[in-house]
Amino acid sequence: MAQGQLPSVNKAGLGELNTVDAEVIDLDALKNADLVKQDVTRARVFLSGELGKAVTVKGLAVTKGAREAIEKAGGKIED
């Protein structure tokens, strides 16, 4: 990353995680599902929609509401 350049950050709604074909959802899984651009270096999951499956979210920023919904669906958050 060039000096002074901000990292590319993108958002993914909770409901969009249903389309990811992976039990562990990380930045690569979001890229493979075309939910974030390939040049994105960080992503945040926010509460939008409903999560219909238990997933593990790994290495992504997660809002408080999304965290509660992920855990309620039987999933977990890992750093």
Please characterize this protein's 3D structure:
The protein has about 80 residues and is an alpha/beta fold. The protein is about 20% helix and about 25% strand. It has helices spanning about 25-30, 65-70, and strands at about 10-15, 25, 40-45, 55-60, 60, 75-79. The protein is globular, with a radius of gyration of 12 Å. The chain starts with 8 loop residues before the first strand and ends with a strand. The mean pLDDT is about 90.
Helix/strand layout:
Elements: E1 9-13, E2 24-25, H1 27-32, E3 42-46, E4 56-58, E5 61-62, H2 64-72, E6 76-78
Parallel strand pairs: 1-3, 2-4, 3-5, 4-6
What is the structure about, briefly put?
The chain is an alpha/beta fold and 79 residues long. It is built from two helices and six strands; from the N terminus they run ββαβββαβ. The strands form two sheets. A three-stranded parallel sheet has the order 1-3-5. A three-stranded parallel sheet has the order 2-4-6.
Key features of this structure:
79 residues; alpha/beta; three-stranded parallel sheet
- Characterize the main sheet: 3 strands, parallel
Specify the number of helices.
2
Radius of gyration: 12 Å
Structural class: alpha/beta
Mean pLDDT: 90
Strand content of the residues, in percent? 25-35%
Order the strands across the largest sheet as they lie in space: 1-3-5
General shape:
globular
Give me the count of strands: 6
Euclidean distance between termini CA atoms: 23 Å
